[in-house]
Amino acid sequence: MTQPHWTDEDLLCELGAALREEEEADAEFIRAAQMAFTWRNVDAELETIGVVPGCELAGAGRVRGAGQGAPRLLSFHGGQLSVELEVDETGMVGQLTPPGPGQVTLITADGPQATAQADEVGGFSLPPASGPIRLDCVSGAGHFITEWTTL
Amino acid sequence: MAMRTAVYQRRTFVLCFDMRVRRNLRVLGPPCGRGMVHMGSASVVSGLVRASADGDPEAWNELVRRFAPLVLAVTRRYQLSAADAQDVSQTVWLRLVEHLGELRTPDALPGWIRMTTQRECSRYVRCGRRTVPVDPHADTAIQQPVTGDLDVDLLRAELRQALRDGLAELPPREQRLLRLRAADPPKSYQEISDLTGMPVSSIGPTLGRCLKKLRQSDAMRTYLADDSGQRKPGRRWSV
Questions:
Q1: Contacts of A137 (CB under 8 A, 6+ apart)
Q2: Average pLDDT of the residues in B202-225
């Protein structure tokens, strides 16, 4: 039985695409990804709180320029602690649930950036950040860390 | 409904393309004996995952090198800017570092990477991105359609990794010849002759032999063997 032949030209074409694809993942991209390895086991003993995928732009809708500078809402939910976060270019305001005093540390890929005290009703504020972040939260509920997420 | 049909047709087309690739590249001889192989032989990826989980940075670097194109392919579907794509991909790698020890089989890694990237892109596009493209005519934020099919990214990424791995199996001189000819635009025989010192008349036949070796490389044979009876039900060709 004869089969249609994938020509040498086809093969070279796909090989070229494969090689260019590898080049596109440029040195900086690769270096940053490789840096992530320094986080291995850093917070391994802490229970992770997952990010909730269904977050929305605060007050969004089809308003003019929605998304440009509009606050963004992020939620993290775990078995014993939830964190709501409202983020805009001036920083972030958060709420721990169950409400109560605690300590929240903002962590980026470069390490801890700032620590805030949550007030008696669980409110806290942190400076602006971008790129991958996570929050280390200590409260009456225990010590937890959020999943990495992108701001 | 019309859109669903269009998506279906595109998917069918690309899958057919991929099947065509596999069928037509199939080489004679027994497959290498391993099924469920992605992004290189399972033993290679398995070893890299295990060594990374045990703290070997070189193994991690190699995992990143192998799978960065897959992450990029997914971010491209969501039309992220280069800076946004880099942030999202960094999040994916940071999460992977923590999940290395939990991957039940290395076979699960490409799917895990694709799914995590896809979810984070989707979340980021909806509520995380710093800038939103605005349609100047409608004066509204442009909706971000996910174009194409994410399974196709995985299939294509597997093929291209197999091609890169297959190329790496060849001697350096043959690799160089193939790279020159696979460049965009391809180098002419005269240019290749000038660069390598090979007589123009011998380039064509040598190229043919190199391509044959590439088709018969372990990486390509393993990739093709994956399609010969050991495919996972429901994942590959269920359209």
A1: A49, A81, A83, A96, A102, A103, A104, A105, A143, A144, A145, A146
A2: 90
Alpha helices for chain B (secondary structure H)? 2-25, 42-53, 57-77, 82-99, 109-123, 150-169, 172-182, 189-196, 200-215, 218-225
Do B69 and A21 lie within an 8 Å CB cutoff?
Answer: yes
Q: Give CA separation, B107 vs A17, B41, B94, in Å.
A: 24, 10, 20
Asked if A18 lies within 8 A of B159 by C-beta distance, the reply is yes
Q: ipTM, 2 decimals?
A: 0.80
B180, B187 contact by CB (below 8 A):
yes
pLDDT in tens, A58-98: 444 333 344 556 788 888 998 899 999 998 889 999 999 99
Give the number of A-B residue pairs with CB atoms closer than 8 Å: 165
| CA pair distance B223, B112, nearest whole angstrom | 19
Q: What are A103's strand-pairing partners?
A: A117, A138
| CA A124/CA A101 separation, integer angstroms | 9
Give A88's contacts in chain B (Cβ within 8 Å): none
In a mutational test of the B interface, the residue from A3, A11, A108 whose CB has the highest number of chain B CBs within 10 Å is A11
Report residue A12 as tokens.
């070279």
Task: List chain B residues with CB under 8 Å of A149.
Answer: 91, 120, 123, 128
pLDDT band per the 50, 70, 90 thresholds, residue B132: low
Write out the E strands in A52-110. 72-77, 82-88, 91-97, 102-108
Three-state SS at A87: strand
Q: Which amino acid is at B17?
A: F
Q: How far apart are the first and last CA of chain B?
A: 17
